[in-house]
Amino acid sequence: MGVIRVVLVDDHEVVRRGVAALLDSEDDIEVVGEAGTAESAVARIIALQPDVAVLDVRLPDGNGVDVCREVRSALPGLACLMLTSFADDDALFDSVMAGASGYVLKQIHGSDLVGAVRTVASGQSLLDPQTTAAMLARLRDQENKKDPLAALSEQERQILDLIGEGLTNRQIGERMFLAEKTVKNYVSHLLAKLDMQRRTQAAALVTRLKAEKGDRGERRSW
């Protein structure tokens, strides 16, 4: 691989000096730049094009997650190693979603930090199986929350929308040119898919989803 070029980003100069001294003592690692703010970090990393960026999660004018996202957009081959003082599930999740290759605490032993830099520089991820499993579970949960109606057919979504308008089965049948019994069957099926017992619950769901879309300035297409 050759010498691994590293840029350090941390708002504490003492921390930067300590990490720089640790990494520079290795024959195969060279610290080519440092930064103490998010703004200067983005400029320096893009200008220097290192192999690895070691990023503090919390910065005075932003955070390392946003820096990671921005610099990886400009330099897709860059490996970002997030460094933080606190174990934070949200920060870990956001870091991985931003494209970070690893996430370590500042309490890490020096030799382990050196190993972490080498690991991400080689293109590997520094996430243990337990963390990876938790990440996948959270992604699945987000996907389910993103569209709670994913299991419904287009016809069922239309009927659900009309339930939200307060229409009876007969009125829905007239609107959609379906027999009332057919509508009743559709309603039973969609309630089962949504794990609901009453149509009032379905109507409340429609109201909530429309309100959420309205808050975000979006239009709902059922």
How are the secondary structure elements laid out?
Blueprint: E1 4-9, H1 13-24, E2 29-35, H2 38-48, E3 52-56, E4 58-59, E5 62-63, H3 64-74, E6 79-84, H4 89-97, E7 102-105, H5 110-121, H6 129-146, H7 154-164, H8 169-176, H9 180-193, H10 199-215
Parallel strand pairs: 1-2, 1-3, 3-6, 6-7
Antiparallel strand pairs: 4-5
Helix pairs in contact: 2-3, 3-4, 7-9, 7-10, 8-9
Assembly level? single chain
How are the strands of the largest sheet arranged? 2-1-3-6-7
Structural class label: alpha/beta
In helices, the fraction of residues equals 55-70%
Give the topology string: H per helix, E per strand: EHEHEEEHEHEHHHHHH
Tell me the strand percentage band: 5-15%
Number of strands: 7
Largest sheet: 5 strands, parallel
Radius of gyration: 26 Å
**Uncertain regions spanning at least 5 consecutive residues:** 218-222
The average pLDDT score comes to 86
Shape: elongated
Question: Distance between termini?
Answer: 52 Å
Number of helices: 10
